[in-house]
Amino acid sequence: MAKSFEESISELEEIVARLESGNVTLDESLELFEKGIKLSKNCQKMLDTAEKKVSILMTTDDGEIVKEDFIGKE
Fold it and tell me: Tens of pLDDT along 21-70?
């Protein structure tokens, strides 16, 4: 089952905390680093997909993409 963006970010934060603690062996560090890179790439893909969906939704009838600032909008 694929993880949600939020689950992936949470797991990535846990990995970073473990690596920063310094209480892991070199082998564990490398394993955690590799897992973190995979999670990071997966999160980036999810963000890219979301951005494309938003762009599609914001395209006008004549094909023009309308960009707006979402801050403060509900």
Answer: 999 999 999 999 999 999 999 999 999 888 888 877 777 777 777 766 55
Domain boundaries, the chain: 5-57
CB atoms within 10 A of CB 53: 10
pTM metric for this prediction:
0.71
Alpha-carbon gap, residue 23 to 19, rounded angstroms: 7
Name 41's Cβ contacts closer than 8 Å, sequence gap at least 6.
none
CA dist 18 and 54 (Å) reads 35
Q: Report the distance separating Cα 64 and Cα 16, nearest Å.
A: 41
- What is the number of other CB atoms lying within 10 angstroms of the CB of residue 39? 19
Query: Which of left, alpha, beta for 63 (phi over 0: left; psi -120 to 50: alpha)?
Result: left
